[in-house]
From TrEMBL:
GO biological process: bacterial-type flagellum-dependent swarming motility
Places the protein is found: Bacterial flagellum basal body
Record's keyword terms, sorted: Bacterial flagellum, Cell projection, Cilium, Flagellum
Record's keyword annotation contains Lipid metabolism: no
Task of the protein: Structural component of flagellum, the bacterial motility apparatus. Part of the rod structure of flagellar basal body.
Name used for this protein in its record: Flagellar basal body rod protein FlgB
Main location: other
Species of origin: Desulfolithobacter dissulfuricans
Domain of life: Bacteria
Length: 136
């Protein structure tokens, strides 16, 4: 039995950790290709999808037939994040749009947010353990 059956917060934290891990791979790939001519860096976004699932979107498209594509996810399980490529627009050099300094800042921010989610998940598990032991 998964622990996520007990609490939706744990399920949300599990999803955030998965998405932060995926974002880490995207950023690491950008840094690894900083010297690759013609490489277009990628960025991943998923925060708005999480917000829409948790609070509901301001406008939700409706699918009325089986062939219609869903535009926004209806549950946490459907959130995959979206990856966007940013081609170089500076017009100089080898058409590589990677800024190592920017990518390092994104990497640090993503790492901090990942660790914050781990801390929250650990606190939830400690509370669950405390409750299971009758408060001892």
């Amino acid at each position: 039995m998964e622990l996520t059956h007990f609490d939706t917060t744990m399920k949300l934290l599990q999803k955030v950790l998965d998405l932060r891990s995926k974002n880490q791979r995207v950023i690491s790939s950008n840094i690894a290709n900083a010297e690759t001519p013609g490489y277009a860096p990628a960025s991943m976004s998923f925060e708005s999808q999480l917000r829409d699932v948790m609070h509901g979107p301001t406008l939700r498209p409706v699918t009325t037939r089986p062939g219609h594509l869903t535009v926004s996810p209806a549950s946490l399980d459907e959130i995959q994040g979206s990856i966007t490529r940013h081609p170089d627009r500076t017009g100089i050099g080898d058409e590589n749009g990677v800024s190592v300094e920017e990518e390092m800042m994104k990497l640090s921010e993503n790492q901090l947010l990942y660790e914050a989610a781990v801390t929250m998940l650990n606190k939830k598990l400690a509370l669950l353990k405390y409750t299971a032991n009758d408060g001892k």
